[in-house]
Amino acid sequence: MAMLAVQKLRPVRHPPVQGPFQKSTRPNAQFVRMAASESATSDTMPISVKVPRVLTVAGSDSGGGAGIQADMKTCAALGVFCTTAITALTAQNTIGVQGIYPVPAKFLEKQLKSVLSDIGADVVKTGMLPSAECIETLCSVLDLFPIRAVVVDPVMVATSGDELAGAGILDALGKKLLPRTDILTPNMPEASQLLGGASVTNFEEMKKAAVEIHKMGPRYVLIKGGHLSGSDDMVDILYDGSEMHEYHGSRVETRNTHGTGCSLASAIAAELAKGSQMRQAVQAAKEYVKETIQRSSKLTIGGGSQGPLNHLHRLNHWERLGQSHFKPESLLLYAVTDSSMNERWGRSTSEAVKEVIEGGATIVQIREKEAESGDFLQEAEASLKVAREYGIPLVINDRLDIALACDADGVHLGQSDLPVSRARAILGPNKIIGVSCKTPEQAQRAWEEGADYIGSGGVYPTNTKQNNKTIGVEGLRKVCESSPLPVVAIGGIKDHNVQEVMASPRPKQLRGVAVVSGLFNQPDVAVAAKHFRAILAEALDESYSRAF
Ligand SMILES: Cc1ncc(COP(=O)(O)OP(=O)(O)O)c(N)n1
Ligand SMILES: Cc1ncsc1CCOP(=O)(O)O
């Protein structure tokens, strides 16, 4: 049995840091300790590890981008343990703030005391403080515990423009909190509000504002110049009462900036908690936020104008998602091979694949119902080589083992094949998984299990697949409307009925047609593919013009 190494807790002895400590009437409770297992108790590893701690006193953002949620993720990313005292719940998303539910001051006090009496905090960071009462409560609790620094982000207006704290807090902020603040981090509109509406719109006014706000009590004032207009150069100013320090950066073009202010203040708090001096902490925090914005710029979360950041980008979770070979547009002309048809016309599968791609196929599936595994693999490898030369995705019908063996771009599965969820677990997030669906229930399941697209049919009767139920154009539409997944129509699709399949009004999920005999049971595959592309172009154009 592994024994846990236990060491007696001692009251905190804070290392001396520059700047005022918060006054304390009571010794702090404890270290945050991680009990180390036996394997970690070598000569070089301490048996008790003191973890830097930040307490964030802020509002909850249900959208996960700002507030408490941003603070916790920032601290986690920077190696700091983050506790919370929630001042308000907000119903919020990437569009804006739909509601605010302030937490009663008495319950805020309970949270603060609960955390500080047990876990303690090296640094307290504040965000949304919705009322004067809440500020007074916070300050009276701060008097009771030793805190090394207080970082105040004077959150008043959300990035969406919604008000989070009214002018009613300014008096309490100025009288109670700012005199005990180590660093205050207003943006330009907040700086203006703190100064009773003074103009803070350019660099010179930012400097003047920093001097004026410094007189209100904070040791450092960091005015964020993100709102400076007419310049790609973004400047923040840090004023310590005698010197102005400038931090220059360049603007990153992205909608994903929601929670940037909370994240910067939390990053400063985290760096201070780890032992940095103020200027170092601001520098490191700015670098972290800059890198975070850059690494978040392509994320698609929510439909509003303010997307969140990827605080934990160093874990690289979402970068890999972006590497999928699949784009719904590639379903436009989906070529499904048939070696018996190709043999009849005197060509190998890989030759047919080359011709169909040259004619305009946008994705290829190798479908072999009779072939031995070794032959299937050889055919797949030769075809994949061709498809890669043209940058066209290639998937394997039914056989996950063949797809894995040749490292194809994915598989197409039928309802009687391996379940999509199992295939996804084996193939990982980046491979394409398509699944055949005839019913709305199957389509819904495909979506839930992680498929990339649906193949739906047979739309028309076909000789290529025996005993295959025909669902018609109506059945195809029902499948399209049952999940957000892109759909490709299949079954008996020929040049004379493509128009009908793709006719307007077309469900937005329907992205193209999958064809076997219409492409491969033809004397010239490239000509057949070109012909399909021309009809598709016309069908799409026509529905485009009808929509206007
Ligand atoms: C794009 C596309 N859609 C549907 C099918 C049919 O797949 P499945 O139901 O697995 O039937 P078989 O192709 O295995 O006979 C498909 N192959 N491709
Ligand atoms: C594989 C498949 N799945 C449903 S119909 C079908 C065959 C489509 O072939 P064709 O395009 O020749 O009708």
Automatic annotation (TrEMBL):
The lineage of its organism: Eukaryota, Viridiplantae, Streptophyta, Embryophyta, Marchantiophyta. One of its GO terms (molecular function) is ATP binding. Its cofactor is Mg(2+). Essential for thiamine biosynthesis. Bifunctional enzyme that catalyzes the phosphorylation of hydroxymethylpyrimidine phosphate (HMP-P) to HMP-PP and condenses 4-methyl-5-(beta-hydroxyethyl)thiazole monophosphate (THZ-P) and 2-methyl-4-amino-5-hydroxymethyl pyrimidine pyrophosphate (HMP-PP) to form thiamine monophosphate (TMP). GO terms for cellular component: chloroplast. It comes from the Eukaryota. It holds the Pfam family Phos_pyr_kin. Belongs to the thiamine-phosphate synthase family. Its main location: plastid. One of its GO terms (biological process) is thiamine biosynthetic process. InterPro entries: Aldolase_TIM, HMP/HMP-P_kinase_dom, PM/HMP-P_kinase-1, Ribokinase-like, ThiamineP_synth_sf, ThiamineP_synth_TenI, TMP_synthase. Coiled coil: none annotated. This is Thiamine-phosphate pyrophosphorylase.
